[in-house]
């Protein structure tokens, strides 16, 4: 079972990749949701019709968590190893790299979405023309998480191939 | 409409009794139903239905597309399934942005008409 290329501690790194993908993206999404949600609660008391537009940043934070969920499910499917049941140490490192890339990118994207959503919602109360700029900056922030997802997907193909 | 006319008579009755009516001075929407102060009365059911739809789509859309793609469309190719799940999540986001923009436009036009 355990050999030089697939030692007994190899699945530790794969499991760490799964956990880091889910945990760090959830931390980022939670920060983005909380930071934007406080601004929505403040803006909604003055102008309730702006709530629908301000919720866009919350939706984007949810997408960050979806990215982490996708990568975590993807890595968890490959944790069983190949047909012989061998899980190489290389696979463990690749899974850790994929999980860390999507996790840390999601953390950064969630932080950016939270700050932009907070300031954007408060500014949107005074100036309605800021909506297009807010959505554009939110999309750029959310694309940071998408880059992490792409790198994670590419890394994940290196183990099965 | 008959109920609306009765509101004024009820206010007159209150003023005749000498009771300082707190209803006075508030907008008409509140005087129509002075007892219901819950938030559910102020939120239109269409907005609630829209939010529920997008919540359900955001939760179930990527997961369902992942498993459908992994088992039916591209069996065994989980990378394509993951990419499709990410695309579906972004499609839901774009749909929400379009819905938010369209709803705000209708609010503005209604406000201009009322003014």
UniProtKB/TrEMBL annotation, chain A:
SUPFAM superfamilies: F1F0 ATP synthase subunit C. The keyword Transmembrane helix applies. V-ATPase is a heteromultimeric enzyme composed of a peripheral catalytic V1 complex (components A to H) attached to an integral membrane V0 proton pore complex (components: a, c, c', c'', d, e, f and VOA1). The decameric c-ring forms the proton-conducting pore, and is composed of eight proteolipid subunits c, one subunit c' and one subunit c''. Its main location: membrane. Residues 17-75, 96-155 form the V-ATPase proteolipid subunit C-like domain. The chain crosses the membrane at residues 12-34, 55-76, 96-119, 131-155. This is V-type proton ATPase proteolipid subunit. Belongs to the V-ATPase proteolipid subunit family. It holds the Pfam family ATP-synt_C. Proton-conducting pore forming of the V0 complex of vacuolar(H+)-ATPase (V-ATPase), a multisubunit enzyme composed of a peripheral complex (V1) that hydrolyzes ATP and a membrane integral complex (V0) that translocates protons. V-ATPase is responsible for acidifying and maintaining the pH of intracellular compartments. Proton-conducting pore forming subunit of the V0 complex of vacuolar(H+)-ATPase (V-ATPase), a multisubunit enzyme composed of a peripheral complex (V1) that hydrolyzes ATP and a membrane integral complex (V0) that translocates protons. V-ATPase is responsible for acidifying and maintaining the pH of intracellular compartments. One of its GO terms (cellular component) is vacuolar membrane. GO terms for molecular function: proton-transporting ATPase activity, rotational mechanism. It comes from the Eukaryota. It is found in: Vacuole membrane. Keywords: Hydrogen ion transport, Ion transport, Membrane, Transmembrane, Transmembrane helix, Transport, Vacuole. Signal peptide: none annotated. It is a multi-pass membrane protein.
From TrEMBL, chain B:
Residues 1-41 are annotated as: Disordered. The keyword Transmembrane helix applies. A motif (Prevents secretion from ER) lies at residues 112-115. InterPro entries: Vma21 (IPR019013). GO terms for cellular component: endoplasmic reticulum membrane; endoplasmic reticulum-Golgi intermediate compartment membrane; ER to Golgi transport vesicle membrane. The chain crosses the membrane at residues 47-68, 80-101. Pfam families: VMA21 (PF09446). It is found in: Endoplasmic reticulum membrane; Endoplasmic reticulum-Golgi intermediate compartment membrane; Cytoplasmic vesicle, COPII-coated vesicle membrane. The keyword Transmembrane helix applies. Belongs to the VMA21 family. Required for the assembly of the V0 complex of the vacuolar ATPase (V-ATPase) in the endoplasmic reticulum. This is Uncharacterized protein. It comes from Ascodesmis nigricans.
